[in-house]
Amino acid sequence: MSRSRVRFTAPFTALADQEVFAVDERSAQLILRASTDSVSVDIAGQHIVAATTLGAAVIEVEGLSAETEYEAVLSDGDGRSLGELHLRTAPSFGPVLARFATISDVHLGAAKFGPSRSITDDHDVPYALRCGRAALAEAAAWGAEVMLVKGDLTDTGVVSEWDLAQKMFADTSLPYLFTPGNHDQWKTRELDPTDGAKLLGVPSDAVQVHDLAGARLILGDTSKPGQGSGDLARLRDELLDAATIDSLVFLGLHHNIQRAPLPWFWPPGTPSTNAMPVVNELAKANRLLFISSGHTHRNRRHSLGPNGVTFTEVGSTADYPGVWAGYEVTGSSIRQTVRRIAAPEAISWTEATRAAIRGVWPRWSQGALDDRCVDAVIS
Fold first, then answer.
1. Distance CA 59, CA 68 (A)
2. What domains, with CATH codes, occur in the chain?
3. What are 298-334's pLDDT values in tens digits?
4. Alpha carbon distance 139, 104 (integer Å)
5. 242 within 8 A of 206, measured Cβ to Cβ
6. For residue range 185-224, what is the model confidence (pLDDT) as tens digits?
7. In the beta sheet, which residues pair with residue 69?
8. Rounded to whole angstroms, how far apart are CA atoms 168 and 133?
9. What one-character DSSP code corresponds to residue 210?
10. Running DSSP on this structure, what letter comes out for residue 332?
11. Mean model confidence pLDDT for the chain
12. Residues near 79 by beta carbon (within 8 Å), at least 6 away in sequence
């Protein structure tokens, strides 16, 4: 696969109060911040007004044309100019055959955020549950056919957190699959993730397969009981069997694939010596391979191995920026679009976590537009 937008991303990203957070063929997501109770956008003949939460609003712009330049004129609730944003919609690669979505790092049961756990929440509904529910609802409304949950659904794997997971999925009709992360395998866990999966009524196999029109979705369990790092090598044979088909393959993992045997940032993922031989074999078995992980709580795009396999890290659902990822499959491409959860009850928490590490956290976690919105096209 080749990508329509390719570049190296620096570890820390410049931030702006007004920004284009996501863009695809027909829509865009804008983030506006102001001291007023509302903000507005004028774009493509549309006037869109949105209320702010903690001074921020997520605005969805629909009905755009593919591969077209647009200018968005921004104002606060008092009519003062907030400037302009320029965007270009993505190209069309043909009719969309399937849509699916992912979330990860929900951390149900967590009560605080930040290195010193200084950011707290006094809402009646726990913040992770609010964010998870909102992500499910927004992905379903977008048209996702299935949701892949890529690990760390719970914070420490105790029974009360699995009870929250049942509550999170109770109100959605969106089918979902789950693979555990290191937090679901925490040393203090009260339930093994396989038993947690039974409570949720979903499979618990180490490798799970779900077929959609034009694509095979695979979830691989890289978690290890009581350990933070991942193991992809043990799944080699099952993954090769599942991926050796004549259609696009999306492989969802919890742990990120490290560039080196040892991690250069926290948390440790799957060492390159463990993961890359498997990735290279998968790429030989199927040239239509796209891999995505969670775990790092950041948005990044990479190219792996001599075959240039597209690999993305997608940020947490329950801390800044608070996201879910949507994927569209055509006959020749797969498109990832990472979107901020727009619901005010989620923004009331995720925007608060923007202050973590004295404001450094969003510069690490958010990534650039090209990290979040990625096209992989069959060569």
1. 19
2. 2-88 (2.60.40.10), 98-377 (3.60.21.10)
3. 999 999 999 999 999 999 999 999 999 999 999 989 9
4. 13
5. no
6. 999 999 999 999 999 999 999 999 999 999 999 999 999 9
7. 88
8. 6
9. E
10. S
11. 95
12. none
CB 191 within 8 A of CB 305: no
Residue 116's pLDDT is what? Answer: 79
Question: What span, in angstroms and rounded, lies between the C-alpha atoms of 202 and 325?
Answer: 21
DSSP three-state, residue 58: strand
**With pLDDT > 70 as the criterion, what percentage of the chain qualifies?**
97
H helices present in the chain, as ranges: 127-142, 159-170, 193-200, 236-243, 272-285, 344-350, 361-365, 369-372
Judge if pTM exceeds 0.85.
yes
CB-based burial, 210-235: b 16+ in 10 Å, e otherwise: bebebbbbbbbbbbeeeebbbbbbeb
Cα 310 from Cα 269, distance rounded (Å): 17
28-33 vs 56-61, strand pairing mode: antiparallel
Inter-CA distances, 282 with 134, 150, 211, 214, 236, Å: 34, 20, 18, 18, 9
